[in-house]
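W.,

You were right to be curious about this one. When I first looked at the sequence I had no strong expectations either way, so I just let the prediction run and decided to look at it fresh. Below is the sequence, 223 residues in total, followed by the output.
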Amino acid sequence: MIYIEKELENLKKEVLEMWDLVNSQLNRAGESLISLDKDLAKEVVYREKRVNAFELKIDSDCEDIIGLYNPVALDLRFTLAMMKINNNLERIADFCEGIARFVIDYPEINIEAELFEKTGIKEMLQIIKDMMNKAELALIEEKSSLAVDLFEMDNRVDELNRNAVPIIAEYLQQFPERAVECLNLISIIRRMERIGDHCNNMAEEIVFYLDAKVLKHADKLLK
């Protein structure tokens, strides 16, 4: 094995470790949101520093590979894809921290479980978890067909995001004293929608690496 191949292998291992860390953050943030578990939310906030440090390490390794080995073709696409995936993972972790901070600051009174169901928060949370897992599997198995599946999943997340606002607005008309909580809830739903967008971005990078297709700003259904 030539040296650059070893470096690329180590880079992939690091990105997958970062992925697992962010996946853990998402699972913990989601669980803390549904159960309003402040202690679990505090764990997410505490672990955010580790995510940030990992992102800087991977970025530095990508820059070293490009600077020292001048990769071309597949190796260059892989390195660029890993750098962008790393950045998207860090942004996902940021949104997880935001969800956790909402739980920590949440009033002791709870929004009715019925509103969680009506707004589709639980469904949205499950979809973005599935998107994270499927995208990681696509990278591990190097199957662009798995990555492409995320585009339709993201469409459903977008739909849930759009539908949630009028549902919360109607609830707010009935319970105006819950205005702050409802506004925060809209913010949380928006964060989950953005996590879906970043999963979508990572799927695009996997397709770019494997198939040399640039899907950004393109109609993915035509690719």
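Here's what jumped out at me. The mean pLDDT is 92. And, maybe more interesting for your project: Helices lie at 3-35, 38-69, 73-105, 113-119, 121-141, 144-174, 179-211.

Coffee later to discuss?

I.
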